[in-house]
């Protein structure tokens, strides 16, 4: 009798553990399926991001939230990226309709055979900088020689290398340090000049207490090498579409114009309502602290507005500069991103121009000439 | 208490049972005590290093072999604990950190459990197949071993991509299933190897005896091989549980699945400088998931206790 009781207890315990596990699974199912909202006549469209939800993609989330995509007859599902997800590969293999990625990263994929087209250059300016503490006295790429220089690699290093080579510093002249997701190595002094996106890592430093003063680090404590100013900026976040489908599938081509149009409206909304946009992104599942999220929204808007020719229009000179750097800048192994000019189809202004024309006709200001960023006060930990 | 039951069986079994009882009766509190002491020693060691460790770490030949003892690199334990009790972010709707981590832990645990179940099922099936047919063993075994040399980061995006194309009827492939599949890919390996070894472990004369009785393969399996394999299987199941948890966390990061521990680790990493306690919370969460998974396998071994003659490390 006793024996079987024990068996029963054990069985009960296993069943309880099993139930626990099953609850976990249902939770898994629920969370994963929240984004497929079914709809009547809307065309389902999926967009692949290059990283997890954060304000870097605020415009797309805002366009979903504000119903701009719906107005165009699109039911947009946003797929988040991950450490090993390559958006242009996901797009080229036909799993999504559009993808967000950096131009230099995609140029390599195109040379490898990916048949995709930059249909809207959302970020006009580059957000990549190389930051260092004032006492290191690094104010130009030439000063990087002999220093510990941080980079994330994986295609994030080319603006840095191009800037250095312009100033006559070879990759061999610096000690290249692999940078992690955090800025600890920089704060601890292991990295003299660290790679930092204006909208993310730069703020991470400014959200940290300076042990010498007991206050947060201030912008005055840092020297920033901005690749836009050095002339080696490369084009970053762009909307990519499938080249073959653009040529053969008229519905897809039309849908591309609509998608770009609604996305631009989303970005205008995010620029004009940074607080709301930050909240939308947080509601979409980003766990970044609120202050940091707002900073990111504001900084990302600065990359877009004021726009020179209209949001998303690819500037031929900037494109040519990006291609030139991609062909002529050598990395630590002597390789370049691409060896020959990309095909004509690598970018097209056809669709974004249509979208801009429609927006202008509707009275939307697509230049944002009068737009001004807000002042975001950073706090410890970005709260 | 089980004396009457035990005495009726072979004397060897009685001594095992007696040993097992004392292990439970008096040994259990001691084991818990020793375990708690181990954790305490680790905590003390951590704090001690913060106090006596060099601020710049120990550098040998340009390589840092011991970490910096700075607040950023090694926050005090109470900083981490305090952080767990505080809300995740400063916004009014933010939940306390422990709640967020606990939810993520449950999520990851669920996926790991599915991965473990699939992995154990596949592993056992493969082991049975290989045990039954010598040809299958020589054909499959090398591939099983090769399978573990495929790097996870190469596999994860492929699995997600293939999965995205699966859809029949109401069933559509969710991203969490990709993660579970990757977890099972890691989990099946120790089970298939351990079970194969265990199934082949009975003495030749025992197997011969079964032959003499003219007992078929299935009955031999049930009466002889399976009971004999338990000692090999349990460590394999434990390894599989650990692999499933690690596989889930890594695959979550890899394909960017939201909701689990892997995602929290990535999202909180950026706060390492400005909020040093924060990135540690999901790490504790993954430890918790590992403990629960190991505890679950412990329950199974309690179930199979009467077959445990001594475990063999897989």
From TrEMBL, chain A:
<dbReference type="InterPro" id="IPR015168">
    <property type="entry name" value="SsuA/THI5"/>
</dbReference>
<keyword id="KW-0479">Metal-binding</keyword>
<keyword id="KW-0784">Thiamine biosynthesis</keyword>
<dbReference type="InterPro" id="IPR027939">
    <property type="entry name" value="NMT1/THI5"/>
</dbReference>
<keyword id="KW-0732">Signal</keyword>
<keyword id="KW-0408">Iron</keyword>
<feature type="signal peptide">
    <location>
        <begin position="1"/>
        <end position="27"/>
    </location>
</feature>
<comment type="function">
    <text>Responsible for the formation of the pyrimidine heterocycle in the thiamine biosynthesis pathway. Catalyzes the formation of hydroxymethylpyrimidine phosphate (HMP-P) from histidine and pyridoxal phosphate (PLP). The protein uses PLP and the active site histidine to form HMP-P, generating an inactive enzyme. The enzyme can only undergo a single turnover, which suggests it is a suicide enzyme.</text>
</comment>
<dbReference type="Pfam" id="PF09084">
    <property type="entry name" value="NMT1"/>
</dbReference>
<protein>
    <recommendedName>
        <fullName>Thiamine pyrimidine synthase</fullName>
    </recommendedName>
</protein>
<dbReference type="GO" id="GO:0046872">
    <property type="term" value="F:metal ion binding"/>
</dbReference>
<feature type="domain" description="SsuA/THI5-like">
    <location>
        <begin position="55"/>
        <end position="277"/>
    </location>
</feature>
<keyword id="KW-0808">Transferase</keyword>
<dbReference type="GO" id="GO:0016740">
    <property type="term" value="F:transferase activity"/>
</dbReference>
<comment type="similarity">
    <text>Belongs to the NMT1/THI5 family.</text>
</comment>
<keyword id="KW-0663">Pyridoxal phosphate</keyword>
<comment type="subunit">
    <text>Homodimer.</text>
</comment>
<dbReference type="GO" id="GO:0009228">
    <property type="term" value="P:thiamine biosynthetic process"/>
</dbReference>
<comment type="pathway">
    <text>Cofactor biosynthesis; thiamine diphosphate biosynthesis.</text>
</comment>
């Amino acid at each position: 009798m006793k024996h079987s009781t024990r068996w029963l207890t054990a069985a009960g315990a296993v069943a309880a553990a099993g139930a626990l596990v099953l609850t976990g699974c249902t939770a898994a199912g629920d969370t994963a399926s929240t984004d497929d909202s079914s709809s009547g006549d809307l065309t389902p469209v999926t967009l692949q991001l290059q990283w997890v939800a954060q304000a870097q993609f605020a415009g797309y989330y805002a366009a979903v939230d504000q119903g701009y995509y719906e107005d165009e007859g699109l039911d947009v599902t946003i797929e988040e990226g991950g450490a090993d997800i390559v958006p242009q590969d996901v797009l080229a293999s036909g799993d999504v309709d559009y993808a967000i990625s950096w131009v230099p990263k995609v140029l390599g994929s195109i040379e490898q055979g990916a048949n995709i087209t930059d249909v809207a250059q959302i970020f006009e300016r580059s957000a990549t900088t190389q930051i260092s503490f004032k006492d290191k006295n690094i104010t130009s790429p030439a000063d990087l020689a002999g220093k510990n220089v941080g980079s994330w690699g994986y295609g994030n290093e080319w603006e840095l290398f191009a800037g250095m080579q312009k100033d006559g510093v070879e990759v061999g002249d610096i000690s290249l340090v692999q940078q992690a997701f955090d800025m600890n190595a920089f704060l601890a002094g292991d990295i003299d000049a660290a790679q930092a996106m204006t909208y993310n890592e730069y703020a991470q430093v400014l959200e940290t207490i300076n042990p010498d003063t007991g206050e947060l680090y201030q912008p005055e404590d840092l020297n920033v090498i901005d690749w836009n100013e050095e002339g080696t900026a490369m084009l970053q976040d762009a909307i990519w579409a499938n080249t073959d489908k653009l040529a053969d599938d008229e519905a897809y081509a039309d849908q591309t114009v609509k998608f770009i149009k609604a996305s631009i409206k989303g970005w205008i909304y995010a620029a004009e309502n940074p607080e709301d946009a930050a909240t939308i992104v947080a509601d979409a599942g980003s766990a970044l602290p609120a202050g940091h999220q707002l900073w990111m929204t504001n900084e990302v808007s600065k990359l877009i507005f004021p726009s020179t020719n209209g949001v998303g229009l690819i500037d031929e000179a900037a494109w040519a500069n990006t291609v030139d750097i991609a062909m002529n800048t050598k990395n630590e192994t002597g390789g370049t991103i691409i060896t020959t000019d990309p095909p004509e189809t690598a970018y097209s202004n056809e669709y974004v121009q249509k979208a801009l024309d429609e927006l202008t006709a509707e009275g939307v200001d697509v230049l944002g000439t009068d737009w001004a960023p807000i002042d975001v006060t950073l706090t410890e930990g970005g709260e | 208490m089980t004396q009457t039951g035990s005495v009726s069986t072979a004397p060897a079994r009685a001594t095992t049972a007696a040993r097992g009882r004392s292990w439970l009766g008096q040994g259990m509190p001691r084991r818990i005590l020793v375990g708690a002491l181990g954790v305490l020693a680790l905590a003390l060691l951590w704090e001690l290093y913060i106090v006596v460790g060099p601020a710049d770490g120990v550098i040998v030949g340009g390589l840092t072999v011991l970490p910096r003892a700075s607040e950023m690199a090694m926050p005090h334990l109470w900083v981490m604990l305090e952080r767990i009790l505080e809300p995740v972010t400063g916004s009014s709707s933010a939940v306390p950190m422990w709640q967020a981590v606990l939810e993520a832990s449950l999520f990851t645990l669920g996926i790991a459990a599915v991965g473990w179940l699939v992995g154990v099922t596949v592993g056992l099936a493969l082991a049975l197949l290989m045990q039954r047919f010598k040809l299958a063993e020589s054909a499959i075994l090398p591939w099983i071993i090769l399978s573990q040399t495929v790097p996870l980061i190469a596999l994860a995006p492929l699995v997600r991509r293939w999965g995205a194309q699966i859809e029949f009827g109401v069933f559509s492939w969710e991203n969490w299933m990709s993660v579970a599949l990757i977890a099972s890919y890691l989990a099946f390996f120790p089970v298939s190897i351990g079970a194969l070894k265990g199934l082949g472990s009975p003495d030749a004369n025992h197997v011969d005896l079964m032959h003499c009785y003219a007992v078929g393969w299935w009955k031999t399996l049930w009466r002889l091989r399976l009971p004999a394999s338990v000692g090999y299987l349990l460590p394999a199941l434990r390894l599989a549980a650990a692999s499933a948890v690690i596989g889930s966390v890594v695959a979550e990061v890899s394909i960017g699945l939201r909701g689990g521990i892997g995602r929290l680790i990535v999202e909180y990493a950026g706060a390492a400088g400005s909020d040093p306690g924060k990135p540690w919370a999901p790490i504790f969460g993954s430890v918790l998931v590992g403990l629960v998974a190991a505890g679950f396998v412990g329950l199974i071994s309690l179930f199979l206790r009467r077959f445990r003659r001594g475990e063999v490390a897989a």
